[in-house]
Structures are given as structure tokens and as C-alpha cells.
Amino acid sequence: MRIGELARRSGLSRDTLRFYEKQGLIESRPGAEATNSYRDYPEEALITLDQIADAQAAGMSIADLAMLMGQLQAADPDGFDGEAFLDARIAEVEARVTRAERFLDSLRQARAALAATPVLR
Amino acid sequence: MRIGELARRSGLSRDTLRFYEKQGLIESRPGAEATNSYRDYPEEALITLDQIADAQAAGMSIADLAMLMGQLQAADPDGFDGEAFLDARIAEVEARVTRAERFLDSLRQARAALAATPVLR
DNA sequence: CAAAACCATGGAGTTAAGTCAACGGTTTTG
DNA sequence: CAAAACCGTTGACTTAACTCCATGGTTTTG
Question: With an 8 Å Cβ cutoff, are A86 and B107 in contact?
Fold first, then answer.
């Protein structure tokens, strides 16, 4: 599919998609039609984009994500320690989730306190 | 305590602390000693800073946090709908945590896959 | 009491992640 | 087939959250 359709279906802007592609997060075949230079995205790009959203929600930077996607599926070329890298990311994300859940609890408590206050304190 | 001590104990830079104060996230009494203009932070600033870290891990912006802290404890002055605001934040954070956990799962799977690969595929 | 260590303010600079604008080709459509 | 709708590239701009720097007071310390 072309960039416009992917943008509509993913909810991202065309600019964002081109940006992600430049960063190596998604890929497109250069238009099979030869005559133009339009990008052609496979259906699975939508899945990848959803996973990118998950990663961003977990606080991952695009640079780290590109590192992950590039290095991990490249079957561990040479001196890249995938296990150590993954372990570090996992620890970071776990810490983040723990903090986020603690915050969520306090938000819920604040909400309950508000609800329990009829009109004035 | 003065800014240097708070910085050491919180792990944040003095600049960050002054920045947070300017944004209304933390408060200090202007030095009781009168002669200088040094900030004087109460012990609880450390707790507040930890909560701020939780909120940031949950994806809250400083602007939203300032809004929360300012409006909510100001006993709902006038036209500010605290319940709606809280409900919106809660929904956002829940969605974020869900996504983050999904990402964490895939990280763990990737890790397990790596561990299961002795030397070559 | 002088040097070192701290603090303040104001403003410029940085980084990440997009976003926008300008200009010029390609496709689609009425 | 001409206008509308798409697409491409390059490069400048934006926003959030800091970070750095310069300049000049205040405290602490040996």
C-alpha cells in the first residue's frame, strides 16, 4: 500500500511514516511500478507500527528501537551483546511500569476522594 | 535544606530542581535567614520528586502535572472539572501501561529466544 | 580572611520526535 | 485532458524537558 493509505490506517502522519522509515523502523519496497518513486508498504507495516507504539509507551527511544530491530534479527553479527542489551531494556521497562502503576494508584485515589466530596469539602 | 543537598539526595541536577520549581512542581520558602536569597526546601520535597518521577514514567507531561497539583489541591476553585480531567488522565495512563506491558512481554520472549540459541541458529 | 564551595538569575543551547513549507513530479478523476 | 489528489525530497521550524554558561552575590573552611 502507499503512504497515504498507511497513514490513514495507522493514524500517523505521512511525515511521521517517512521519518520512521529514515530511522529504520519500517521498510518499503521502492514502487514495483518503476515509473514513479512511490513507497510501497507491505500489510505488516501496520503491525510493526503498532509494536512501535507499544515500545514508545514503554519509554523506548526510537534509536534504541532501531538498534533492537536491526541487531536482533540480524542474527547477532559480531561483537554485539544482544543478551546484555535486552536485559538492560527489560530492567528499564520493568522499573517504568512499576512507577507508572504506582502513579495510576494515586490518580485513582485522587479520583475517589473527589467523588466522595459532594459539594464542598 | 538547600538546593545542593536536595540535588544530591534526589539524584537530579540543581538546574532541574530550579526548572521544576519554576513550573510549579515543587516549592521552597525563600531562605529564612533573610540575608541571602537561597531556596530552602522542606524534607517532603524528596517525596514530591519521587512522585514526579512516577508521573513521568507514566507519560505525564510537566504541564499536566502542574495542572493536577495546582488545581486539585486548590479545592476546585471554579469552572475546573477535576473529575473529568482525572478520568482522562487515568484512561491515558491505563492505556500506556497496557501497551508497555505488551512490549515487555515481547522483550522477554526475544530474550528467551536468544538464550535458547546456543551458538548458531 | 582568602580561597573554595555554594547559590541566584537570565538567557542561550541541546536532543528527541515530529511537523511544516516549498517545489516539483505522478495518478486519479470528472 | 485538466484539475484535484498523491507522492518525493530537502531543509527549516516546533515543543518539551532539560542543560550550560556567564556574571555576581553568600557561606564555609583551612
Answer: yes
CA of B14 to C1' of C9 (A): 13
In a domain, B9, yes or no: yes
What is the C-alpha separation between B101 and B104, in angstroms, rounded? 5
B63-103 per-position pLDDT tens digit: 999 999 887 666 555 656 778 889 999 999 999 999 999 99
**Distance in angstroms: CA B15, C1' C13:** 14
Number of structural domains found in chain B: 1
Distance CA B54, CA B72 (A): 18
For the CA atoms of B73, B79, B83, B84, the dihedral, rounded to the nearest 10 degrees, stands at -130
Domain that holds residue B29: 1-60
CATH number for position B38: 1.10.1660.10
Are A43 and A90 found together in one domain? no
Which of A51, A71, A85, A96 is the best mutation test for B, with the most CBs of B within 10 A? A96
Residue B97 lies in a domain: no
pLDDT of A98 > 70? The answer is: yes
Nearest CA of chain B to the CA of A97: how many Å? 6
Query: Does residue B49 lie in a domain region?
Result: yes
* CB of A51 less than 8 A from some CB of B: yes
